[in-house]
Amino acid sequence: MSLVLDILSWALMVTGGVFCLLSGVGLLRFPDVFTRIHAASLGDTLGAGLILLGLLLQAGLGADLVGIKLVLILVFLLFTSPVATHALVQAALLDGLKPWTRDGRPTEGSLNPDDPAEDDAFIRDARDGGRR
Amino acid sequence: MEATASVFVLVTMALALARAVRGPTVYDRIAAVNAFGTMTVLVLVLVGFLTDRPEFEDIALLYGLINFAGTIAVLKFVKYSSLAGPQEPRPAAPRAEGRR
Amino acid sequence: MKHALSLFVGLYVLWLLLSGHWDDPLLLGLGVTSAALTVFVAWRMEGLDHEGVPVAVVLRALAYWPWLLWQIVLSNLAVARCVLNPDRIAPRMTWVPVSQSTDLGKVILANSITLTPGTISVQVDGGHILVHALEPGSIHDLFGGEMDRRADWVEGSLDRPAQADRTTDPTTGGA
């Protein structure tokens, strides 16, 4: 039983490690910041998740709280990483970076910063702060 | 077997560091450093298991939260040149496509 | 009051899980103190409402998570294929319609979109979310609306806030 558990946890950890590695490779290979962030989220989600799951199989949800803390680390990662990603992408767009596209044309949707109907105080502040 | 995963994660950290050095925009660097921080959390947990010291998990937990707060703080600083939010208008600076 | 109490209980359980000392009166007392202090700060920041402490949503969110985790696995595989063969990528950024009526519901959906690799929500504006996608296929899935329906279901347990709640002008900062 313990051997099966060991093999399973080893497989999970190596798969997670491979996903982390792919996220690093994507970070280097992709053409612009927006696509690179997609690659980075690879390691934040499945990479971290599989490694922590593999360790969880080793530790078990025992009385020494090691397993609970692993779950908490994963939960915190899953809650914080989308917020950081979203803030990063929005800041990059507000700063005037144009997303890379395959045919070089602009994307069909944009932040449309000149729209006066924009009712987001934070965006407006950021834009005015950046414009002046 | 934690060692195998650690090697993968350490290589990823090196790749993220390469992206942080190469840039080209400041947002590439922030994204790379954020990914680097996530990998640091994983390395901390893995080393804790390798050396049989569960205290490392508490450090990893804290590091994950500080990594998030740090990313947001750096973004805010880049955006406003201040951690307190938009204040005085800054003198106009020529910006072609994002800051370097 | 309901929100303050549930936040306090949640924080204290977190304290107990992280400390691991359940027989030391000093540590238990310090836990009560710091949890109470955090609730006080949250109250001062006016975070103690249905958005800051969404008690009703948590249970449904637990049922939503397994499906979301499965979606994360699927989209991870798609992005991993893109990394191995960068010729596959064809980034798009477009506005996707959403059906959520409350801000919390939109946040749940936008966070789910960002959490699945391959799609990032950039901006929420009224009934639409601006989404950047690595592959055209993943944005087709969003237009299909499966995730929208499920986030709607999670949001459904909310007592819809009164209309007055949503007319506060963000520029005046509310209260």
If you had to describe this structure to a student in words, what would you say it looks like?
- Chain A is mostly helical.
- In chain A, 72% of the residues lie in helices and 0% in strands.
- Chain A contains four helices and no strands.
- In chain A, helix 2 packs antiparallel against helix 3 (66-94).
- Chain B is mainly alpha-helical and 100 residues long.
- Chain B has one domain.
- Chain B is flat and about 45 Å long.
- The mean pLDDT of chain B is 83.
- With 175 residues, chain C is mostly helical.
- Chain C has helices at 2-19, 25-44, 55-84, 103-115, 136-144, 146-155, 163-166; strands at 92-97, 119-125, 128-133.
- In chain C, helix 1 packs antiparallel against helix 2 and helix 4 (103-115) packs across helix 6.
- The model of chain C is unreliable at 157-175 (pLDDT under 50).
- Chain A binds chain C through residues 19, 22-23, 25-26, 29-31, 34-35, 37-39, 41-42, 45-46, 49, 64-65, 68-69, 72, 78, 81-83, 85-86, 89-90, 93, 99-102, 107-111, 118-121, 123-124, and chain C through 14, 17-18, 20, 69, 72-73, 76, 79-80, 82-84, 86, 89-95, 110-111, 114-118, 120-123, 125, 130-132, 134, 170-171, 173.
- Chain A: Keywords: Membrane, Transmembrane, Transmembrane helix.
- Chain A: This is Multicomponent Na+:H+ antiporter subunit G.
- Chain A: Residues 121-132 have a biased composition (Basic and acidic residues).
List the helices and strands and how they pair.
The complex is a heterotrimer of chains A (132), B (100) and C (175).
Chain A (H helix, E strand, L loop, with lengths): L1 H28 L3 H27 L6 H29 L26 H11 L1
Helix pairs in contact in A: 1-2, 2-3
Chain B lengths: L1 H21 L3 H25 L4 H26 L20
Helix pairs in contact in B: 1-2, 2-3
Chain C lengths: L1 H18 L5 H20 L10 H30 L7 E6 L5 H13 L3 E7 L2 E6 L2 H9 L1 H10 L7 H4 L9
Antiparallel strand pairs in C: 1-3, 2-3
Helix pairs in contact in C: 1-2, 3-6, 4-6
Keywords (chain C): Cell membrane, Membrane, Transmembrane, Transmembrane helix
Organism (chain C): Rhodospira trueperi
Pfam families (chain C): MNHE
